[in-house]
Specification:
The protein is mostly helical and about 170 residues long. Helix content is about 70%, strand content about 0%. The protein is built from 7 helices and no strands. Helix 1 runs antiparallel to helix 4 and helix 2 runs antiparallel to helix 3. The chain starts with 16 loop residues before the first helix and ends with a helix.
Length: about 170
Amino acid sequence: INLDFIFIGPQVIHLSPFLSLIFTIIWISGITNAFNWLDGLDGLASGVTSIICLSFIFISFITYNYILGIIFLALFGSNLGFLRYNFYPSKIMMGDGGSYFLGCCLAIFSILLNQSGSCNLLVSALIMLVPLGDMLTVIISRLKKGISPFYPDRRHLHHRILYFGF
């Protein structure tokens, strides 16, 4: 995993296999969970995933990583096909299985982009800022209130969107 964005200069960071495994598990489970938490409104998770896939498609093709670009293109196309039937009022729903699948795919494919040298994890995290920001905001607000980060509440992005009347 390329973590060169942490230090400025010619330093090369080598993580031990154990630390790399821990970091990878946290990355994959965090992004997977963030997309599951984002799936609260019709079309929100698949729409955000489509936008994220477009960004990764662009990065993949300008860095000549055509295999991952085609994979992101397939994920983008399947999301667009699903999104047609998932707008309000939705005819089909994604459910936990779909949001876990999308989050896991994006987490693993972003690691593959990182390993190929096409995109570092900071750029991937910035591209996935909406789901990651929602998850971090909810966790921090729950911890400030002294409750468990796993306790359900109405602090998510989709609840705020509904509160503003959208």
